[in-house]
């Protein structure tokens, strides 16, 4: 199937499709099928992570697809256990091996914990070596993002953070725009929390356009210039989540959606000491 997906331009000139396919919580044994179906639906941007345990399956689907490497945009992420200069180099090598790729388009520091300044130095070298096309971060609050960008002089291309109608992150997006960092949403549907798919405001707007709530949410995010990576294991939803460019939300509709913001996470705050401790000590390999 041929689908045209607009791209955003990162701060190093690289193009990134504004819609990708996320594979968090897809069990490894189901991931090859899901990614193959997503590629058949027209996705060309894939988002995985070392900690998801499914990079090999993503790699098998890429290899089986026959799609030219240049036509794909592949992201993976560094787990906290591998923070630091040398461990990061080894972790990138291991991810590339599992993915069966010579380079990734985007490599993110998954969490703002551990020696991520050491990781960042290594990622800068790896972008120069070409093993990583763009380097970025995830789950960085704006204070940490500013410090990393300004103290190192190497600005992340992307910050991937929880962003959905109940946690809209406008202030963070403004900080990112000031730095030249592309805002990427994870959990764009809040994984369905807060009854997002039956939200009355979103349902009314969806009905006005003859679209689904999911499409309204993804259109709202992309109209804000935010890159999205919806996850689904169902081919009909994969197609639905890509088909979001045939309508535009009005200024009035944007205001109604803006009013849904609670300003707080529906998951957890990455500054919560209990989470810093729990995630920081999680191990994904020996
Ligand atoms: N950097 C990070 O720390 C971080 C954290 C979380 C996620 N992520 C990334 O962001 C991606 C997306 O986030 P997420 O997977 O947490 O959640 P999400 O995309 O917000 O929501 C996924 C859920 O929505 C359902 N769904 C998908 N499309 C739908 C539609 N059109 N209508 C109704 N239901 C629909 C899916 O069910 P079915 O599968 O049954 O369709 C699944 O239960 C992840 O896959 C991952 O790549 C990153």
TrEMBL record:
<feature type="binding site">
    <location>
        <position position="110"/>
    </location>
    <ligand>
        <name>substrate</name>
    </ligand>
</feature>
<dbReference type="InterPro" id="IPR018170">
    <property type="entry name" value="Aldo/ket_reductase_CS"/>
</dbReference>
<keyword id="KW-0560">Oxidoreductase</keyword>
<dbReference type="Pfam" id="PF00248">
    <property type="entry name" value="Aldo_ket_red"/>
</dbReference>
<dbReference type="InterPro" id="IPR023210">
    <property type="entry name" value="NADP_OxRdtase_dom"/>
</dbReference>
<comment type="similarity">
    <text>Belongs to the aldo/keto reductase family.</text>
</comment>
<dbReference type="InterPro" id="IPR020471">
    <property type="entry name" value="AKR"/>
</dbReference>
<dbReference type="InterPro" id="IPR036812">
    <property type="entry name" value="NAD(P)_OxRdtase_dom_sf"/>
</dbReference>
<keyword id="KW-0521">NADP</keyword>
<dbReference type="GO" id="GO:0016616">
    <property type="term" value="F:oxidoreductase activity, acting on the CH-OH group of donors, NAD or NADP as acceptor"/>
</dbReference>
<feature type="site" description="Lowers pKa of active site Tyr">
    <location>
        <position position="77"/>
    </location>
</feature>
<feature type="active site" description="Proton donor">
    <location>
        <position position="52"/>
    </location>
</feature>
<feature type="domain" description="NADP-dependent oxidoreductase">
    <location>
        <begin position="25"/>
        <end position="260"/>
    </location>
</feature>
<protein>
    <submittedName>
        <fullName>Aldo/keto reductase</fullName>
    </submittedName>
</protein>
């Amino acid at each position: 199937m041929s689908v045209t997906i607009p791209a955003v331009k990162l701060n190093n000139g690289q193009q990134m499709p504004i819609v990708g396919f996320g594979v968090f919580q897809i069990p490894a044994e189901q991931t090859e099928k899901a990614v193959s179906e997503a590629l058949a639906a027209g996705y060309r941007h894939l988002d995985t992570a070392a900690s998801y345990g499914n990079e090999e399956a993503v790699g098998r689907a890429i290899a089986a697809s026959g799609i030219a490497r240049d036509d794909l945009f592949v992201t993976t992420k560094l787990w906290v256990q591998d923070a630091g200069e040398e461990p990061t180099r080894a972790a990138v090598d291991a991810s590339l091996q599992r993915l069966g790729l010579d380079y990734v388009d985007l490599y993110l520091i998954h969490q703002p914990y551990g020696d991520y300044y050491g990781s960042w130095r290594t990622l800068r070298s790896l972008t120069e070596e070409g093993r990583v096309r763009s380097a970025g971060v995830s789950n960085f609050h704006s204070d940490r993002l500013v410090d990393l960008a300004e103290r190192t002089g190497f600005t992340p291309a992307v910050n991937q953070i929880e962003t959905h109608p109940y946690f809209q992150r406008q202030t963070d997006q403004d900080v990112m725009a000031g730095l030249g960092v592309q805002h990427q949403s994870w959990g764009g549907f809040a994984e369905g929390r807060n009854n997002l798919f039956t939200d009355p405001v979103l349902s009314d707007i969806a009905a006005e356009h003859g679209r689904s709530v999911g499409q309204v949410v993804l259109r709202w995010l992309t109209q804000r210039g935010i890159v999205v990576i919806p996850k689904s294991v169902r081919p009909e939803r994969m197609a639905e989540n890509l088909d979001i460019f045939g309508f535009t939300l009005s200024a009035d509709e944007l205001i109604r959606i803006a009013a849904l913001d609670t300003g707080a996470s529906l998951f957890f705050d990455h500054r919560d000491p209990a989470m810093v401790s729990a995630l920081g000590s999680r191990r994904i390999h020996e």
